[in-house]
Design goal:
Number of strands: 2
Distance between the termini: 25 Å
Largest sheet: 2 strands, antiparallel
Strand content: 15-25%
Shape: globular
């Protein structure tokens, strides 16, 4: 297999993972957290690292009335990180969760 074919396959896999992560967080996980700091947040983008070792999720408030401070939102995600990772790994069924 050529290097070009490998990078194309990696790219498709990364895109599938990014799409799955975005859908899972937006539709299932954020609503289930019941944290006021995370209410009305929507996934703007998901970027997987080149080696798929990590995923960066960008969220934004859905309306101007629901604006929270960045520190408050980061703290809420810090509290929910292990739960998000565990639930994502069950939903996506990956060998290794980014």
């Amino acid at each position: 297999m050529s290097l070009r074919n490998r990078s194309q396959r990696h790219g498709l896999r990364a895109q599938r993972i990014e799409k799955s992560v975005a859908e899972a967080i937006e539709c299932s996980l954020l609503p289930s957290l019941n944290d006021p700091a995370l209410d009305d947040l929507h996934v703007v983008s998901v970027e997987a690292a080149a080696n798929l070792s990590s995923v960066r999720v960008t969220v934004a408030p859905g309306s101007a009335q629901s604006l929270k401070s960045a520190a408050e939102v980061e703290a809420a995600f810090g509290r929910a990180e292990s739960r998000l990772r565990a639930e994502l790994s069950q939903m996506l069924r990956l060998k290794r969760m980014p």
